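Per your request, structure below.
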């Protein structure tokens, strides 16, 4: 009998993102051995089986025993509903950051082509066509890739080996029940008094792990004999409606229905309402979305605790605090009951309204000492935010709410390395005719901003011009300022410095007139400072960036600070103070990398290379240039194709070649190009390791106004936040 205990880290973490096992893995030794053999023999193995049979648990446990040099990566597709987001979800799981306009599939193909890794693709059955297409192309283009797929049906592509998973044998089923029951009731053990009842209970539940977990969740209130007696009654009562289903599917449905029937009315109500969440959720969200009409908000915690004790929910510790999750099979049962009550549409609206409130708070708090918390919180909430966006953009009367959500998340799309997905939602939103001009105007300037950063100047200019024309028509001074600002940013990266200075100065004047102050305004000052520096006005550039630094210190802003430090380092390096330049760049690089802002990171690495060669280490400078060369394809055109931004790079290359000679220089550049992003940042920081954003506080309660339904944008369209 195999009984593995929860994984514990005993050394440096291996590459990958496999979830840690929180309880013992019981049995399945024969299946594990056969699955390992299959993974060694072929490049695509699909574990199939009915819901609740333990496919995910077996696959992740088996994957944890493999050691591909580039890691094991788990992709959970169960919370993804839009087929267009499958590729984004895989890229997200792999930790890929790409600022360009390249399709996400191309980004994935480019990444996996040179790596040896195992991809665990979990919960794909509702997206089988898109998943099969992606997996097939990845396997064809990447000889070092293996895929372990997990679903209720095969992918159906060439080279796939199907691994059907049966329920547990009786001995293992009894062992699993006893283990989980002991976790609920300390001291519980099999003995002569309960052994026969437990074995019969496991037989009646067909050895289905989810059914056994649900039954074990009841041992705090019912003995095994009582559980068995109640189950006998429920089988007779509940199997009638699903006679055409396979016997084990009847068993699982009956077991879930039996557990559901044993719940109190409040527990059944919360179970159904929680089914509107995608992936994880926290207590505050559950209290808002699920309360009312038969369930008081103050009672949600106690009722949720009961569902947790009964294994209807699981509890997870995350960087954003304690969160809860419902298994897909259990969620589907709850969703069925929610639909039957006629309350599904109202709950979906409440779900959307909660996440609108959350995004509104996060956009405000981005310009605060809680910026790091905001980044982690939005990352954690992404599955639910996608659902909220999908719901709003799919309802004709709610188009303006989808536009508001897509625009208000500008800080996440831009500041946290999500440009590609952000553009997906922004383009969808501006195609719709909403009845609120300010929401669409904001989505337009954010779309233009994203396209500028992706180096896609024609769509960027089109969106920004449309935004400005419409803003002037409806006299929206805020949107005019943002459109002008981002047009100035476009001029900056395309080397039109005179136009950039004119537009950026005008935009900053407009911001001042309307009382706007946020991260966007600070970035406008930084961009103007860069334009001045390129034109030789170093004192003017320094004044602007020192002002930005002071505002950042006052407000706890870190993201824009990183760019201000880059400009100050540019000035310090130009004036010969390499020590000060290095200190500023290292601080800025740590900030950018912590936020997954690849543009800020690669700019810092490029300038650090010049500092390094001037300090007398041309070989290391060439290595850093090589590392930057590997990062640029994920950012866009290297150094924007700008002669101004490129000047430090050219100077560094010339100095390094002069000292090393062409052959040695190219050798060092090639060595740097082998470094991954984390390794490159650690190297640039002198081996100090990859910086983190820092400890993230537990999510605090939202302000009272944010906890109310957020059914419409603010009067100024949200542009005054940042």
């Amino acid at each position: 009998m195999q009984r593995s205990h929860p994984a514990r880290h005993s050394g440096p973490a291996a590459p990958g993102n496999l979830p840690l096992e929180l309880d013992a893995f019981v049995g399945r030794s024969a299946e594990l051995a056969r699955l390992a053999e299959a993974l060694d023999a072929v490049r695509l193995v699909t574990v199939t089986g009915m819901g609740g049979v333990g496919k995910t648990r077996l696959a992740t446990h088996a994957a944890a025993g493999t050691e591909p040099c580039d890691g094991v990566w788990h992709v959970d597709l169960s919370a993804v509903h839009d087929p267009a987001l499958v590729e984004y979800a895989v890229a997200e799981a792999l930790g890929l950051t790409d600022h360009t306009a390249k399709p996400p599939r191309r980004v994935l193909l480019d990444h996996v082509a040179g790596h040896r890794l195992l991809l665990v693709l979990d919960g794909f059955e509702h997206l089988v066509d898109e998943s099969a297409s992606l997996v097939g192309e990845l396997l064809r283009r990447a000889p070092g890739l293996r895929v372990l797929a997990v679903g209720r049906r095969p992918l159906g592509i060439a080279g796939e080996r199907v691994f059907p998973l049966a329920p547990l044998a009786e001995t293992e089923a009894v062992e699993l029940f006893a283990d989980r029951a002991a976790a609920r009731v300390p001291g519980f053990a099999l003995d002569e008094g309960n052994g026969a009842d437990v074995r019969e209970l496991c037989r009646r539940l067909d050895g289905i792990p989810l059914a056994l977990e649900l039954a074990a969740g009841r041992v705090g209130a019912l003995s095994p004999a009582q559980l068995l007696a109640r189950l006998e009654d429920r089988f007779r009562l509940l199997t009638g409606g699903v006679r055409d289903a396979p016997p084990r599917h009847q068993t699982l449905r009956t077991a879930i229905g039996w557990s559901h029937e044993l719940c109190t009315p409040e527990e059944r109500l919360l179970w159904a309402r929680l089914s509107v969440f995608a992936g994880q959720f926290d207590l505050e969200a559950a209290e808002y979305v699920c309360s009312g009409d038969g369930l008081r908000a103050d009672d949600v915690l106690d009722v949720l605790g009961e569902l947790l004790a009964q294994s209807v929910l699981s509890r997870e510790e995350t960087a954003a605090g304690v969160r809860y999750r419902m298994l897909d099979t259990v969620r589907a049962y709850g969703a069925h009951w929610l639909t039957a009550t006629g309350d599904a549409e109202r709950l979906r609206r409440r779900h959307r309204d909660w996440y609108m409130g959350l995004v509104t708070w996060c956009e405000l708090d981005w310009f605060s000492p809680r910026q790091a918390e905001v980044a982690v919180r939005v990352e954690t909430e992404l599955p639910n935010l996608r659902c909220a966006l999908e719901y709003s953009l799919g309802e004709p009367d709610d188009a303006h709410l989808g536009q508001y959500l897509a625009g208000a998340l500008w800080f996440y799309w831009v500041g946290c390395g999500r440009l590609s997905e952000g553009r997906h939602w922004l383009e969808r939103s501006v195609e719709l005719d909403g009845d609120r001009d300010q929401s669409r105007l904001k989505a337009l300037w954010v779309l233009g901003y994203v396209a500028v950063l992706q180096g896609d100047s024609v769509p960027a200019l089109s969106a920004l011009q449309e935004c400005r024309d419409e803003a002037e028509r409806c006299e929206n001074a805020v949107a005019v300022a943002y459109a002008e600002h981002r047009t100035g940013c476009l001029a900056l990266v395309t080397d039109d410095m005179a136009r950039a200075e004119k537009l950026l100065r005008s935009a900053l004047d407009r911001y001042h007139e309307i009382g706007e102050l946020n991260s966007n305004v600070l970035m406008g000052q930084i961009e103007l400072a860069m334009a001045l520096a390129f034109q030789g006005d170093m004192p003017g550039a320094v004044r602007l960036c020192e002002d930005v630094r002071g505002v950042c210190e006052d407000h706890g802003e870190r993201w824009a600070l990183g760019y201000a430090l880059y400009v100050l380092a540019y000035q310090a390096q130009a004036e010969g103070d390499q020590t000060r330049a290095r200190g500023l760049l290292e601080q800025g690089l740590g900030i950018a990398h912590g936020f997954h802002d690849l543009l800020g990171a690669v700019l810092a690495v490029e300038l650090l290379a010049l500092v390094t060669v001037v300090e007398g280490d041309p070989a290391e400078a060439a290595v850093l240039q090589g590392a930057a060369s590997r990062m640029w394809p994920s950012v866009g055109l290297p150094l924007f194709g700008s002669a101004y931004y490129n000047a430090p790079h050219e100077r560094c290359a010339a100095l390094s070649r002069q000292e090393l000679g062409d052959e040695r220089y190219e050798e060092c550049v090639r060595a740097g190009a082998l470094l991954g992003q984390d390794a490159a940042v650690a190297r640039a920081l002198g081996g100090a390791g990859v910086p983190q954003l820092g400890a993230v506080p537990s999510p605090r309660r939202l302000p009272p106004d944010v906890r109310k339904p957020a059914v419409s944008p603010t009067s100024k369209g949200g542009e005054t936040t940042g």
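The chain has a mean pLDDT of 87.

Regards,
D.
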